[in-house]
Design brief:
Blueprint: E1 24-25, E2 30-38, E3 42-49, E4 54-61, E5 68-69, E6 76-77, H1 81-99, E7 109-115, E8 118-124, E9 128-130, H2 131-134, H3 139-158, E10 161-162, E11 171-174, E12 179-181, E13 188-189, H4 225-240, H5 247-251, H6 264-273, H7 285-303, E14 310-311, E15 316-324, E16 327-336, E17 339-346, E18 349-353, E19 371-375, E20 378-381, H8 387-394, H9 414-428, H10 437-444, H11 461-464, E21 496-502, E22 511-512, E23 523-526, E24 542-545, E25 553-554
Parallel strand pairs: 19-22, 21-25
Antiparallel strand pairs: 1-2, 2-3, 3-4, 4-8, 5-6, 7-8, 9-11, 10-13, 11-12, 14-15, 15-16, 16-17, 17-20, 18-19, 21-23, 23-24
Length: 559
């Protein structure tokens, strides 16, 4: 139990102060399994609710510089009993306040009790990884999570509570790809007049906490701008991969630098949030959202350079240019029966199709020989066809993994896809189709902007793909991993994608706009899926099958 290190609860594990695995609490209601984390004010354990058979997280009040563990390994002792008792009572009161917080993006406290001469509270155990473990994210993905966290902050601020420890390590992404705010260990409660009621020791996290948080008097009055500073610093870390400078250095004149590939407008939002003086920051989460929306609206107005409208009673098509990380993507937005989706322009070019020698021993026989392919311009779906879009066109949802309309549709055959496309074309007056295998691979590799990655957008499968090692054996909402060089999502993983072509062996000769063999017995699927090993989500891996249905077969449109 002593050697476990788990960052998901935002603390460093200890060695000699925690309770041994197997110990029971609350008359056997809970059994401790292992340490999740240990900080200055407490120890967090993974535990088991023995009656429900449910995994939980249990926080023990244990300020390590004050408390000691007695010889029995569970009881604690402390020298100043009157001060310690007051702190335990405040810990319990604050835990009960947390238990009343009900928000989908906040970890739930389910029980509070005293035992072993100290106090404990029990939380839902969040299965997943922290944003600290996710590393650098696409700006749009980062802001999706940040908006969820900000909504949670708006809720706790309405309860006169400051979290005071917002950082990537304290934001868990659960199995449903939802951000969950954890670790209220140094949070503070305030009365209706904004005066502090909490007495727990003030803490701070280097790079995320503003200067006023360095002293107890600095946070004696309720001010949401303190959490907003940390929110801005968190955005900076997620979008750049770098922790911002400690706030005291910024106060001394050090300047926050904009990473070369960060959008100017996002950097403006961050800079506004992490001003040294509180009055210069957004004063509420509503102001933060207004700032974020204002910048995104300005971004949209600045970056839209053309507009083409196709309009009938139900449907609309528009063309725009989206800028992201100093790369622009020409996109066409189509709406059908109230559901919008984007098509990304792929500028034609010449590429080497198949697995080259330097791509190693993973290459399959049918990925060779490498051959030259020349393609004209075309558009391809920014995402896989979602269940929402399929439902809007077909009136039903054949997917096996339901529960979120933004998951890709699956359990569709090649013929099902043809029927969907025919109905979509009648509704829009356009001429959608499945991409050819060559178009699919060129787009997955990043087209003329390709950086030569193994997977679509990265050499790290976890960054761009939901696959067998991280999917939890299910599909996930589209566009929740990083995009590739063209701004396309999920071309590695999530669901295999039907292509137009019959399967056939590669020819070594150069080809222009190839469409595969004229006849065959199997069609091509590309990209791998939620149940694939990493080797099968490579951009040049070929999957072949009869035209049947399966719960990892989906599609992406071309035009």
């Amino acid at each position: 139990m002593k050697d476990i290190h788990n960052r998901q609860w935002g603390e460093d594990t200890g060695t000699a102060l925690d309770v041994e695995a197997g110990a029971e609490l609350c008359f056997g209601r809970y059994k401790l399994l292992k340490v999740l984390g240990q900080g200055g004010f407490g120890i967090t354990y993974m535990g088991l609710h023995t009656g429900l058979g449910k995994t939980v997280a249990i926080k023990e009040y244990f300020p390590k510089d004050v408390f000691r563990r007695m010889e029995d390994g569970t009881q604690v002792s402390y020298s100043n009993k009157s001060i310690s008792r007051k702190n335990i009572e405040r810990f319990l009161r604050e835990a009960r306040i947390m238990a009343n917080l009900k928000h989908e993006n906040i970890v739930s406290v389910t029980d509070v009790f005293e035992e072993n001469n100290t106090a404990y509270y029990v939380m839902d155990y969040v299965e997943g990884h922290s944003l600290e473990d996710r590393g650098r994210l696409n700006e749009n993905v980062a802001l999706k999570y940040i908006r969820q966290v900000a909504d949670a902050l708006r809720y706790i601020h309405s309860q006169n509570i400051l979290h005071l420890d917002i950082k990537p390590a304290n934001i868990m992404i659960d199995a449903s790809d939802k951000a969950v705010l954890i670790d209220f260990g140094i949070s503070k409660n305030y009365d209706k007049e904004g005066n502090i009621e909490s007495s727990t020791t003030t803490g701070y996290s280097a790079g995320y906490s503003p200067v006023e948080q360095m002293t107890p008097s600095g946070i004696a009055q309720f001010s949401p701008s303190t959490d907003i500073y940390a929110l801005g610093a968190t955005i900076y870390k997620l979008a750049s991969g770098t922790t911002p400078p400690v706030s005291t250095l910024l106060a001394d004149g050090e300047v926050l630098t904009k990473p070369a590939d960060m959008s100017e407008r996002l950097f403006e939002v961050i800079s506004h949030c992490i001003q040294v003086k509180r009055r210069d920051r957004p004063q509420s989460i509503d102001e933060f959202f207004a700032l974020l929306d204002q910048k995104q609206q300005a971004n949209s107005e600045h970056e839209q350079d053309t507009q083409y409208i196709y309009d009938n009673e139900h449907n609309e098509t528009s063309t725009e240019t989206i800028y992201n990380h100093n790369i622009y993507y020409d996109t066409k937005t189509i709406a059908v029966n109230g559901v919008a989706f984007k098509m990304v322009k792929v500028k034609g070019g010449t590429f080497q199709m198949g697995a080259t020698t330097e791509q190693g021993s993973e290459a399959e026989k049918d990925e060779k020989p490498v051959h030259t392919v020349i393609l004209s311009d075309y558009y391809i779906g920014q995402t896989e066809v979602t269940q929402e879009l399929w439902q809007a066109v077909m009136g039903d949802n054949p997917a096996f993994f339901k529960g979120d309309s933004q998951r890709p549709v699956e359990n569709v055959s090649w013929e099902d896809c043809q029927e969907f496309i025919q109905k979509l074309n009648r509704l829009t007056g356009l001429k959608f189709r499945l991409p050819t295998e060559a178009e699919w691979e060129f787009a997955a590799r990043g087209g003329v902007k390709s950086k030569g990655y193994k997977y679509s957008g990265s050499n790290d499968a976890d960054a761009v793909a939901w696959y067998g090692e991280n999917s939890g054996s299910k599909t996930h909402p589209v566009a929740t991993k990083q995009s590739n060089e063209l701004g396309l999502y999920d071309m590695s993983g999530n669901v295999r994608e039907w292509c137009y072509d019959w399967y056939g062996p590669y020819s070594g000769s150069a080809q222009t706009n190839p469409k595969g063999p004229s006849i065959g017995s199997c069609r091509i699927l590309r990209g791998g899926s939620w149940n694939s090993i990493a080797r099968f989500v490579r951009s040049y891996y070929r999957s072949i099958t009869p035209t049947r249905r399966n719960n990892d077969y989906g599609l992406r449109l071309a035009i």
